[in-house]
Write a sequence for this structure.
């Protein structure tokens, strides 16, 4: 049974190496190659969002890859707005770690 009070976030949503048909939800400008679950969790901590991590979950289109999933407590903001914010922060995180 689905829970209506949470947003499901898969790392593939932010993966610039994937096509939209493979699960990417955002434009390539605000995605990164092979995002990690812990990177997304760091961003959620900074944004002070409550979340739950299931590390051994597999995205339905790729059941052989256990990338994990994050359940974010639903607030007033729509899912796409939260995803875009996470994507922008991921790009910032990756660019700052390269310096």
């Amino acid at each position: 049974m689905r829970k209506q009070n949470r947003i499901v976030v898969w790392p593939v949503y932010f993966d610039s190496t994937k096509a939209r048909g493979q699960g990417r939800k955002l434009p390539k400008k605000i995605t990164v190659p092979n995002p990690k679950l812990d990177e997304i969790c760091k961003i959620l901590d900074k944004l002070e969002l409550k979340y739950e991590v299931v590390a051994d979950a597999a995205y339905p289109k790729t059941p052989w890859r256990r990338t994990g999933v994050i359940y974010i407590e639903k607030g007033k903001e729509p899912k796409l707005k939260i995803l875009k914010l996470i994507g922008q922060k991921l790009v910032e995180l990756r660019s700052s770690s390269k310096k």
Observations:
- Residues 79-98 form the longest helix (20 residues).
